[in-house]
Design brief:
There is one protein chain. The strands form two sheets. Strands 1-2-3-5-4 form a five-stranded antiparallel sheet, with helices on one face. It has a two-stranded antiparallel ribbon with strand order 6-7. Helices cover 27% and strands 16% of the residues. It is α+β, with helices and mostly antiparallel strands and 201 residues long. It has a single domain (4-165), classed as HIT family, subunit A (2-Layer Sandwich), CATH 3.30.428. The chain has five helices and seven strands. α1 (47-67) packs across α4 (146-162). The protein starts with a strand and ends with a helix.
Length: 201
Amino acid sequence: MGRKLFTCDGGSIVMPAPELVLVDRGDGGNLIVNPPRDVWERSELSAVELSLWSSLVAATGKAMLDVLPQLEGGCINYWEAGNWALNEEAEPRGHKTAKEHRSVHLHLLGRSPVAKDPSLRWGEAPFFPSFVDRHEWAKSHEQLRSEEALNIVKRTEELLRGKYYFSPGQISRWFTCPECGYPTAAAVTGTCSECVRSDVE
């Protein structure tokens, strides 16, 4: 999983790992919204948890549509994922059951009417590769840029407060990293963990 941008009682907004971006930023972008706790199936969430998560998902998708120019005239596909974690080649190798190894999360896939990727042709379902081909297939996809991610987080918070009635206590503190410019879900301001890690390496 990639960098965590935002957290609240409804869950978290996360960037996909750089090597597994499903939709290039220019074609609409890709974010992940996790539920408030790790579950293998959404029915495991309580009614309150499911409601809060659904609000975060809707606010994030609306924010993407509101602030990303590349989504003008487009839409969001909400795709519940977790299949690759069950592949026999995924760690730990071998046969896996969903209840033991699947982790519910939603990919928000920006769909642009003018997408260049043949896997994302407008008016068609998106195409995803087999597990073994996933890194090669995704290697040309760029993550959303810091300014885009920041605008999405700001708009998501506005929507959670104004439309979905989240109280200030239901939204966790976040800050903008002074080095990379990405929003960062953390209680203490400063350089984000990704920048600290790259400095060490």
